[in-house]
Amino acid sequence: MALPQTEFLLLQQDGPFLHVTLNRPESRNALSLGMATELMAVFDAVRDDKSIRALILRGAGGHFCAGGDIKDMAGARAALAAGDSNAMLKFNRQFGEMISICNELPQTVVTVIEGAALGGGFGLACVSDVAIAHPNALFGLPETGLGVIPAQIAPFVVKRIGLTQARRLSLTGIRFNGAEAQRLGVVHEVADNDEDLNARLEKTLNAIRRCAPDANRVTKQLILDVEREPMNNLLDRAAQAFADATQSEEGQEGTMAFVQKRLPKWAE
Question: pTM for the full model?
Answer without folding.
Answer: 0.95
